[in-house]
């Protein structure tokens, strides 16, 4: 069942599962798309197995994401892998809890949990275990089996029903099925006596009706699923919706199935008036399952579609029958089936007066007998087994005796045949024979299905029904020949061709022969009214409560009942029949029975049962007798937990029988061996069966008595054996203490327990110390024994040397001390100085007059010596140095420019030293430079010069910055920075614009005020003379000689000039190389290069470069010598 919510939050929403008995908790209000809470598509079933056999609990779950399945039990754990095994079967998709060898103590209620992130589902199943050798009276060696043949007792079935452990599918099917199908459905689930279920079924029907009433006004004519002759599987119902727009959902095995409204869909729904017909097109084995129809969230129909693997070995064959005779159809199946479906056209046939349906003992041969054939019985008949069908025709032949009533002139010897409402007459006297086709006359109303014998219990509803061939025919009902009307305690209903007689509450005098007549046709059936024994629900609930009495008192049970006489009443105690005797009194009448047990003892506690039986059935009721008494003695043997010098501790087991109520106290007595007197020691709580006697003398022997006490009295005693208290025996010395760590104010020690404990447990240790140079040992632990095997000694002096020893203490006292440990000095461990700040500044700028503060953190042990230097010499007196254990601080309260320098801190101790440098620069805002002068020597440039800033001599890091603004853009732009001289030439001066310049002095503090220049302006040139730069080509840098080894690359280049740019051509032995791909030739800005990637012997020779333009030609050559050849290089230059 799918639920919808509006908001997403962490909640706990209880949901109803489609499988009864399953409880679902949803963790979120709104499930994400495609996600769902866990649910059980098949829950684990109750199981009964024999001791020593295997037991399986199986479950199938659904949910997205896939749930995690775990198992628990009420009275124990299931985490022992030898007793319980869990696994998942991929093929069957089952989660299985396997118990390899069942023990009686494993009989319990088991819980199965399915959990994912959106919720969890819980279901329970009971495991019953039959102990080996267990026998009931009259039933030696009882064995439980499963399947169609059940030996499970009627009591066990009732107990299952009380525990809610019947397959929930059975309840769903019974709610939707008519009463006539109850027996068949129960038999399919292995239940042969279902009368005890009717009360629970009626309650479920009422609950289901209350749910349906919210969405449906009326539900009627529910038809279970069956395969039709046309091959479709259909199930239907009549219902009227409260809201025509209500959603109608179809589910298969708990999963929603989409359906259409036309017959081409796999699953379809057709609506005719108030009739809803669901159908499955071309059903296959995978379509088998448990189908349910819901309107909104209310279930209105449940049906089980089973597809057995069966075929027809012998199909039914066409049959001819003479009117008033019987016609028989018979088929043989390949697999035994309890029943198949017989139908004529679209109507299913049922066993009754008209049709007799039988099955052979081996369930393979199925037979349909059509009784007293009439002309309207002709037509096609179908046998349907699973999704396989077989069809045949019935032809009814009319006898001449009947035909002569209408046509007396035709001889009796002429054959007649009835086909499709026509009579075919054959006249043999006519040449070649002659056929007449005569239309048969209407024979009036006929019974399509007659009345069937019915059995009903007193107080229940009974119904007799039949169906005529005409919707307009009226009929009359008779009881033992007497005409019945609606006023005679019955309800007569006519629904088209169906006629029903309903008795709402049957009485014994309603048993009779009932007959229905219509237009000369009649059908009879017998109603048998049974009166099985019944017990009122309130009386049964009162009877089931346990009877609790004290020992010696009487117990009594009374139970009223009703039912048809004679009654057989029997009482049982733990399955043994009780017979009247000295302590057993049984008083039984026609309406009640009473049992009285006198002078009951504790052993009489157990189960009390009454069984009431008559010819119509059996019922039982169970109660329990609890007799309270004093407990039995505590159980031995007594285990001695401790036998010390000053105490004795022992324990025992609780009584085997607590007398029916909890043990409240134990009473302890003691006797010293050799004396006769017993003394009361104590009365302790009953929750802890152990005692510690702390008042004993060393070496003496004692004996103890233990009694259990509850609200009913005190038990007999359990006496212990003699228990001897311990003697004085001191422990041996522990091992010498070990120094874990030492500091100036604390020394940490540890030691091992002694090998000899003195026969009792060690309760603590004493630790002593000795200061080196003295003979006195003082105890460190003044506050009591040390319970651990380690201790931190804090009462030490820095730099002092100590020895330590330790002694163990048991119940007898302190033993001898250990040998002293090695001498240890109270001081911190040696550590080389190390600076802690990884991001310490190495350069600091301070404005003159401000405070300079440097804080350097370090760690070192022992305490180091700290020194500060400025530029390699000690710092001035006005510099304050403050040192601590963790760092040092340099402070200059009012800094001056003379304080600029490199400061070095050195931290040194016995383990080593470490230094760190910090450059401090003390300065101030720079003063501006002097006046700026302008000078133009080259067109398009202007040279700025200025007087130096007064701070230039005092600050070696002072420099200048120049900015420019012209009359066109009117924004200042930096044109030079980091100038350490007093002159700068500005380029890109355009004619026709005015320029303004500023010069700033700049240091580590910032900028000075600017020094501004005069306005610089140029006039735009009216006419510019063009210059002629043309020149013939020439070599700036000629080729250089090259010698290259074979297999290596060779690079040769030269530089050329000329205007216009000359064309460059490379030659090898007077052969142009410009188009040869074996050479890489480039010309970048007059630099001409040729690259040979891999020199070979044949590359040896003369290389030449020729450059030319319109003004002339020039060339340059060289000879490449490859190593291994005679080297000779010649240069030729031609112009």
Word description of this protein:
The longest helix is centred in the first third of the chain and has 15 residues, at 198-212. Helix content is 5%, strand content 48%. Strands 1, 2, 4, 6, 9 and 10 form a six-stranded mixed β-sheet that branches. Strands 82, 84, 85, 88, 89 and 90 form a six-stranded mixed β-sheet that branches. The protein has six helices and 90 strands. It is mostly beta strands and 1135 residues long. The protein has ten domains: 36-130, Immunoglobulin-like (Sandwich), CATH 2.60.40.10; 165-215, no CATH class; 219-305, Immunoglobulins (Immunoglobulin-like, Sandwich), CATH 2.60.40.10; 319-397, Immunoglobulin-like; 451-530, Immunoglobulins (Immunoglobulin-like, Sandwich); 534-628, Sandwich (Immunoglobulin-like); 634-725, Immunoglobulin-like, CATH 2.60.40; 738-826, Sandwich (Immunoglobulin-like); and more. The relative contact order is 0.03.
């Amino acid at each position: 069942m799918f639920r919808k919510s509006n908001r997403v939050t962490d909640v706990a929403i209880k949901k109803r599962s489609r499988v009864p008995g399953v409880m679902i908790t949803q963790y979120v209000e709104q499930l994400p798309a495609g996600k769902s809470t866990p649910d059980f598509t098949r829950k684990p079933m109750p199981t009964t197995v024999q001791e020593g056999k295997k037991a399986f609990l199986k479950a199938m779950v659904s949910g997205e994401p896939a749930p995690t399945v775990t198992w628990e039990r009420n009275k124990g754990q299931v985490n022992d892998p030898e007793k319980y095994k869990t696994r998942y079967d991929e093929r069957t998709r089952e989660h299985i809890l396997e118990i390899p060898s069942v023990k009686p103590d494993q009989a319990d209620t088991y819980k199965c949990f399915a959990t994912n992130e959106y919720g969890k589902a819980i279901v329970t199943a009971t495991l019953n275990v039959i102990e080996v050798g267990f026998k009931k009276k009259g039933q030696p060696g009882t064995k439980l089996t499963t399947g169609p043949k059940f030996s499970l007792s009627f009591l066990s079935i009732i107990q299952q029903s009380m525990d809610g452990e019947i397959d929930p599918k059975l309840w769903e099917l019974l709610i939707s099925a008519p009463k006539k199908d109850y027996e068949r459905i129960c038999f399919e689930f292995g239940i042969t006596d279902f009368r005890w279920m009717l009360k629970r079924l009626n309650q479920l029907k009422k609950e289901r009706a209350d749910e349906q009433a919210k969405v449906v006004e009326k539900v009627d004519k529910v038809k279970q699923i069956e395969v039709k002759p046309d091959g479709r599987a259909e199930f239907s119902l009549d219902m009227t919706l409260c809201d025509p727009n209500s959603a109608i959902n179809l589910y298969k095995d708990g999963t929603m199935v989409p359906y259409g409204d036309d017959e081409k869909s796999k699953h379809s729904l057709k609506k005719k008036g108030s009739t809803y017909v669901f159908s499955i097109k071309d059903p296959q084995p995978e379509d088998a399952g448990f189908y349910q129809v819901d309107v909104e969230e209310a279930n209105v129909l449940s049906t089980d579609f089973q597809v057995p693997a069966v075929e027809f070995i012998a199909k039914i064959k066409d049959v001819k029958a003479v009117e008033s005779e019987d016609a028989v159809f018979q088929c043989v199946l390949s697999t035994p089936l309890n029943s198949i479906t017989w139908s004529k056209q679209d109507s299913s046939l049922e066993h009754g007066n008209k049709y007799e349906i039988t099955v052979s003992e081996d369930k393979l041969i199925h037979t349909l007998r059509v009784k007293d054939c009439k002309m309207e019985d002709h037509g096609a008949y179908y046998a349907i087994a699973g999704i396989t069908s077989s069809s045949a025709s019935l032809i009814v032949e009319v006898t001449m005796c009947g035909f002569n009533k209408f046509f007396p002139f035709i001889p009796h010897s002429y054959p007649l045949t009835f086909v499709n409402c026509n009579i075919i007459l054959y006249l043999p006297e006519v040449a070649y024979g002659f056929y007449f086709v005569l239309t048969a006359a209407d024979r009036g109303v006929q019974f399509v299905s007659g009345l069937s014998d019915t059995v009903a219990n007193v107080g229940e509803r009974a119904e007799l029904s039949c169906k005529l061939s005409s919707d307009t025919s009226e009929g009359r009902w008779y009881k033992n020949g007497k005409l019945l009307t609606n006023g005679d305690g019955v309800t007569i209903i006519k629904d088209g061709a169906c006629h029903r007689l309903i008795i709402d509450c049957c009485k014994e005098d309603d048993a009779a022969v009932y007959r229905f007549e219509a237009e000369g046709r009649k059908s009879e059936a017998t109603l048998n009214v049974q009166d099985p024994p019944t017990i009122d629900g309130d009386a049964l609930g009162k009877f089931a409560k346990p009877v609790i009495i004290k020992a010696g008192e009487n117990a009594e049970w009374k139970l009223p009942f009703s039912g048809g006489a004679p009654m057989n009443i029997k009482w049982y105690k733990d399955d043994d029949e009780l017979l009247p005797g000295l302590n057993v009194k049984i008083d039984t009448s026609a309406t009640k029975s009473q049992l009285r047990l006198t002078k009951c003892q504790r052993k009489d506690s157990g189960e009390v049962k009454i069984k009431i039986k008559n010819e119509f059935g059996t019922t039982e009721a169970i109660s329990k007798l609890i007799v309270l008494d004093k407990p039995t003695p505590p159980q031995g043997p007594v285990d001695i937990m401790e036998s010390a010098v000053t105490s004795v501790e022992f324990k025992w087991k609780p009584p085997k029988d607590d007398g029916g109520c909890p043990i409240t106290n134990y009473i302890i007595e003691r006797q010293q061996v050799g004396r006769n007197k017993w003394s009361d020691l104590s009365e302790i709580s009953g929750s802890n069966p152990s005692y510690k006697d702390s008042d004993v003398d060393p070496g003496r022997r004692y004996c103890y008595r233990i009694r259990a006490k509850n609200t009913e009295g005190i038990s007999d005693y359990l006496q212990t054996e003699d228990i001897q208290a311990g003697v004085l025996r001191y422990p041996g010395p522990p091992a010498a203490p070990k120094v874990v760590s030492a500091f100036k104010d604390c020394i940490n020690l540890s030691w091992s327990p002694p090998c000899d404990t003195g026969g009792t447990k060690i309760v603590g240790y004493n630790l002593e110390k000795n200061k080196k140079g003295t003979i006195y040992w003082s105890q460190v632990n003044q506050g009591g024994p040390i319970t651990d095997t380690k201790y931190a000694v804090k009462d030490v002096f820095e730099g002092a040397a100590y020895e330590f020893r330790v002694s163990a203490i048991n119940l007898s006292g302190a033993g001898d001390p250990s040998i002293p440990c090695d001498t240890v000095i109270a001081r911190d461990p040696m550590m080389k100085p190390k600076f802690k700040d990884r991001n310490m500044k190495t350069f600091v700028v301070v404005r003159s007059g401000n405070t300079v503060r440097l804080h350097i953190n370090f760690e070192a042990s022992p305490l180091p010596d700290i020194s500060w230097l400025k530029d390699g010499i000690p710092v001035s007196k006005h510099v304050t140095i403050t040192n601590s254990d963790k760092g040092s601080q340099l402070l200059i309260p009012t800094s001056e420019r003379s304080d600029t320098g490199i400061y070095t801190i050195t931290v040194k101790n016995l383990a080593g030293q470490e230094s760190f440098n910090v450059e401090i620069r003390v300065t101030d805002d720079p003063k501006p430079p002097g006046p700026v002068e302008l000078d133009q020597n080259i067109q398009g440039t202007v040279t700025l010069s200025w007087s130096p800033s007064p701070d230039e001599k005092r600050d070696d890091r002072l420099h200048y910055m120049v900015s420019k603004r012209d009359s066109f853009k009117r924004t200042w732009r930096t044109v030079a920075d980091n100038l350490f001289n007093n002159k700068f030439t500005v380029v890109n001066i355009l004619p026709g614009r005015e320029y303004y310049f500023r010069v700033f002095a700049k240091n580590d503090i910032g900028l000075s005020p600017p020094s501004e220049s005069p306005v610089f302006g140029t006039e735009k040139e009216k006419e510019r003379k063009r210059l002629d730069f043309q020149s013939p080509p020439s070599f700036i840098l000629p080729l250089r000689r090259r010698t290259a080894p074979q297999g290596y690359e060779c690079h040769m280049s030269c530089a050329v000039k000329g205007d216009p740019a000359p064309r460059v051509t490379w030659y090898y032995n007077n052969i142009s190389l410009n188009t040869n791909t074996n050479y890489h030739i480039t010309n970048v800005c007059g630099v001409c290069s040729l690259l040979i990637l891999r020199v070979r012997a044949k590359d040896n020779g003369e290389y030449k470069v020729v450059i030319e333009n319109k003004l002339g030609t020039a060339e340059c050559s060289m000879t490449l010598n490859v190593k291994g050849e005679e080297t000779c290089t010649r240069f030729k230059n031609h112009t």
